[in-house]
Write the C-alpha cells for this entry.
Amino acid sequence: MSLGDEHGSSGGYGGTGQTHTRLPEADVSPYAGGRRGGRTSSRSLVTVVGVVVLLIAAIAFANRGGDDVPSDETDDSPKTAATAPSGEKPVRSKAAGIPSGFAHNRQGAESAAANYSIALGSAELFDKDRRREIVTAVYAPDIAAARQADLDRAYSNEEFLTNIGLDKDGKAPAGQTFVSRVVPVGTKATKATADEATVEVWYTSLFGLSGEGSTNPVTESWYTTTYQLTWIDEDWKVTDFQQKDGPVPVGRDQKASTADDMTKAVEEFGGFTYAR
C-alpha cells in the first residue's frame, strides 16, 4: 500500500493521485472473531504440507553437518536451490535509516525497489519531518521536490486523515495503534540497462488501526508496483511508479485475531529494514 499506497483519497498514498481510500465495510470487522466465508479447509492437504515442510527442514539440517568454517572464511554467495532466496551481500550503508548503496546491476535495482517500497508504505510517512527524509532518500533529486509537495498536501488533508481514523496531526486515537506496513513477496526486473531499470515489486500490505473500538481494523491487501529507477550519485533512485491490484492469493479459512492480539503483534514484531 503506499509506495505511496492505496489509501490516500487525496493525492494518492504515494503522491500519484491515481489511488483511492479503501475502508472496511461497516458491518464487517475482523476483530469480531468471524471466519471468511465461501471457503472450506482441507485437513489432509494441511497435513501433507506440514510433512513436506518438516522433511525439507530435516534435510537442510542434515546437510549443514561438517560444513562449518570460521566466520571470516564464510562463502556468502547464493546457493542454488528451489526455495533459496537470491541475493548478494546486504548493503552496509543507510540514508535516513533506509538501505542505500545498492549494486549497479539488475539485482541491485530489484533490491532498491523492494526496500524503497517498505519505506514508502510505512507509517513513518505520516510524520512530516520523517516523510521529508524518506522522500529525499528514495527519489531522484529532480523528482523529490515535486513529490514532497504532493505528499505533504495528501498527508495534511484532514478529510483523508479522518477517513482512516487519524487526527489532523496523523496520530491514532488513544488506546489504538496505527499500522501501515508493506511486506515485499518478490521482485522482477523487466528492464535493466547501465543507468535505468524497471522493477516490479509484488507485496502484501497491512493497514488500519488496531485496538478496541477501532472503526478501521487492520486489513490485508495485495498489490504490484512498477518502479522506474535511475542510477544517480552511485545509487538507484525512484523517478516514477505505477500501482495495480494483485496478484491476490486465496485466503485460508483462518479466524481473525482479536484487537489485543493484533496490537501486541504490531508492537512486538518489528518491520524489515532490508529486503533481498
